[in-house]
Design goal:
- 29% of the residues lie in helices and 18% in strands.
- A two-stranded antiparallel ribbon has the order 1-2. Strands 3-4 form a two-stranded antiparallel sheet.
- The N and C termini lie far apart (31 Å).
- The chain is an alpha+beta fold and 137 residues long.
- The chain has one domain (6-128).
- It contains 5 helices and 6 strands; from the N terminus they run αββαββαββαα.
- 31% of the residues are buried.
- It binds zinc ion (ZN).
Length: 137
């Protein structure tokens, strides 16, 4: 069953995953409303703790709220779409999602944002000219 705030969360996100930016219109699976800070960690059910996420990002994120920066090994919190700006932490290099900061690198790793299956999808979308999407400002 969809979260009661799903329509609001979807519209706020511009109908694209707030982590890997895949647009709902071209994603093969569902995009869902997820809790940024998982409820088991005390995260609320309010709008400021909800994000629109593709099933792939949501699956890999699970209840994680942090990870180890692949460059430094330091414990680092994950990207929070409600307080962080996507473009500050990530950028595209073709169809590869690159973390620009410890938060970006850690999130890209924990959410497996460059696993082969999604890279193939992005590469195809790039050729079609429908990816990457324009970032909301
Ligand atoms: Zn995603």
């Amino acid at each position: 069953m969809a979260h009661p705030r799903h329509e609001f969360v979807r519209a706020r996100a511009g109908s694209a995953c707030e982590y890997c930016r895949i647009p709902a219109a071209v994603y093969a699976g569902p995009l869902t409303t997820e809790h940024i800070i998982a409820r088991r960690h005390g995260g609320s059910d309010r709008d400021d703790n909800l994000a629109f996420a593709c099933a792939r990002c949501n699956l890999h994120k699970g209840p994680n709220i942090a990870g180890l920066d692949p460059e430094t090994g330091e414990l680092t919190r994950l990207f929070n779409p409600r307080i962080d700006t996507w473009g500050d932490h990530f950028e595209w290099s073709g169809h590869i999602l690159v973390g620009r900061t410890p938060i970006g690198r850690t999130t890209a790793r924990v959410l497996a944002m460059n696993e082969p299956a999604i890279r193939v999808v992005r590469a195809a979308l790039l050729l079609e000219g429908v990816f990457p999407p324009i970032e909301p400002s």
